[in-house]
Amino acid sequence: MAARKAAGRRKQTIGKGPKRAPKKSPGKKARVAVLMGSKSDWPSMQAAVDVLEEMGVGCDVRVISAHRTPARHSAFVEAAEARGIELFICGAGFAAHLAGVTAALTPLPVLGVPLDSSALDGLDALLATVQMPGGIPVATFGIGKSGAKNAGLFASAMLAGSDAKIRRALDAYRKKQTAAVPERPF
Ligand code: RP5
Q: Is the pLDDT of residue 10 over 60?
């Protein structure tokens, strides 16, 4: 009985771990492109995709590296606007150029998420992402998973101005978050 319960519990957690693939959002047109420099960035960048899915925002999720797949990068970014993409979220670690180079290739807004994959725990990626020379802006978020989550929320807020459904979802998210904070710590 106990073994069956444990197996049931294990089954419930399958698909909820950091390697879970995003839902396909069938019929939902991608409005946000979520790019990451490596497959190894997915456990952090999943936080952005989870939020976008919760807000009902369609997204296109890709592994694209400014350093290792430059041709894939420029081809994707240059075709994105015509395909309906309205903004980019880019996560990368080390000498993180993904957000900056994406911003160089498109006038669409680019939200950068520095990731903590290097020996410097993301401080390198933070500086590389945030220190853009004047003229090519990248809106930079905090390091790692919380930065990715906030980038997803920020992207949703940007789209909510002209989309009442997303606005309602954001309001509900805030309400739920507030209700989940206990008044006392014990
Ligand atoms: C960066 O290098 C990626 O964004 C990733 O954070 C980091 C390590 O990549 P892998 O060596 O794990 O592919 O470009």
A: no
Q: Is residue 175 part of a domain?
A: yes
Structural domain boundaries enclosing 145: 22-179
Centroid of ligand 1 to alpha carbon of 92 (angstroms): 7
- Average pLDDT, whole number, for the chain? 90
Which pLDDT band holds residue 1 (cuts at 50, 70, 90)?
very low
Domain assignment present for 122: yes
The closest-lying atom of ligand 1 relative to the alpha carbon of residue 65 is 14
State the distance from the centre of ligand 1 to the C-alpha of 65, rounded, in angstroms: 8
Question: For position 77, which CATH number holds?
Answer: 3.40.50.1970
pLDDT at 8: 44
> On the CB side of 93, how many CA atoms lie within 13 Å of its CA?
18
C-beta of 42 in contact with ligand 1 (< 6 A): no
Is 24's pLDDT higher than 60? Answer: no
State the total domains in the chain.
Answer: 1
Query: Is residue 22's pLDDT more than 60?
Result: no
